[in-house]
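thread from #wetlab-drylab

HS: before we spend reagent money on co-crystallization trials with NAP, can we at least see a predicted complex? here's what I'd submit
DV: go for it
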Amino acid sequence: MSENVVIVGSGPAGWSAAIYCARANLKPLVFEGALTEENQINGTLPLGQLNLTTEVENYAGFPSANLDQFLDTALDKNERMLLPPSEGKHAVTGPELMHLMRQQARNFGTRIVTDDVARLDLSTRPFKVYPLEGEPLEAKAIIIATGARANYLGLESEAKYKNRGVSACAVCDGALPMFRNQPLVVVGGGDSAVEEATYLTNFASRVYLIHRRDTLRASKIMADRATRNEKIEIVWNHQVVEVLGDETKVTGVRLENTVDGSHRELACGGMFAAIGHTPNTSFLKGQVETNEAGYIRWVKPFRTWTSVEGVFAAGDVADDYYRQAITSAGTGCMAALDAERWLAAQH
Ligand code: NAP
C-alpha cells in the first residue's frame, strides 16, 4: 500500500509539514535522516541546522524564559534525556526547539524513520522511495524539506571552535553575549558576507571582512554599504588558514596573504563563515528542477509545487534568500496544504 505523503527532512519545514499533514489525517511518514558519520561530518544529521546552533532568540513564541519545566512536561522522557538542562538560559535553544517540533508532530500521529532517503524514483506513480536501509516504499505525494548546509572553510581548527566562537549565521548567533563588544571576523565577499558584517556591527566593536580577492562579489549597493560603514574594515587578498583559541573560545585567526603568501595574526572574539550554502539535493539526482545554485525551484508563484507534480519543496532546500527557521516552518505548512489539496484533487 502506498503512503499518502512522505516527508524527507526534519528541520522546521519537515516538522511543520508533518504537523499539518497529520492533522489533515494524511498519516505522514517522515524520514528524519540517518545517524551516520557522513551526516555528522556534513552537518546533515536529523533535526537539521537548528540542532547545531545554540540559542534561538528570533523564533516567535519563545520569549526569554527558563524552559526546563515546560520541556519536562512537553517531551517524552527518553527524548528529554537527550537535552542538557538549561539552567540560566535566556531563550529556547535550537535543539530544544527541534525536539519540541518533533514531539508535536508525533503527538498527532506522525510516523518517523531515522534514516536517509538514498534515492527517489519520480518517474513512476506512485513515486518510489528508497531508504538507505530497509525496504523501498511507495508514496502518492512527497514533500522535500532536506534543507541546506552552510559551507565552512574546512579547517580542523574551525571545526574545533564551532559553537564556541565559529558560526555560519550572524542572524542566529551574532547577538550572543560571547560576540558582544569585541572584534569579529567575517569570511567571504558576497552579499551574505556583507550583510552579516553589517549586521554584526550592532554588537561588535569592529568587524573585519576577510576576502580572498581585491573586489567584492557582492552587489554594488551592498558593497557600498560595507565600505561606508566605519565599523567595518575590509581585509583584501587574505584568507583564514587557522582559527586560534584558548580551548574554550576563539581568540583570533591566522591570515594568509593570497598575493605574497605572508602570514599574520588578527585578534578577534569570533569568526563567521559567509561563503555560501549547499542545498541537500544530491539524492534527487536531477529529477527536480533547480536554480543555478542548486536550490529547488518552485514552479508556481506562492505555491510549493516543484517541476514534478505531486512533489513539493519547503524550507531552505528551496530558499537561498531568507533561510530563517520561521520562514522554513511557514513554507512547511504551505507544502502540507499544497500536498493535501493536490491529493484531494487526484481522487
Ligand atoms: P556567494 O555570492 O556565492 O558568495 C560567496 C563568497 O564567499 C564569494 O565572495 C567567494 O569568493 C567566497 N568564498 C567561497 N568559498 C570560499 C573559500 N573557501 N574561502 C574564502 N572565500 C570563499 O554566496 P552568498 O553571499 O551566500 O550569496 C548567495 C546568493 O544569495 C547570491 O545570489 C546573493 O546575491 C544572494 N543574497 C542576497 C542578499 C540580499 O540581496 N540582501 C543577501 C544575501 C545573499 P569569490 O568572490 O572569490 O568567489
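DV: The pocket of NAP is lined by residues 153, 187-193, 195, 212-213, 217, 239, 275-276, 320 (CB under 6 Å).
HS: ok that's useful, forwarding to the group
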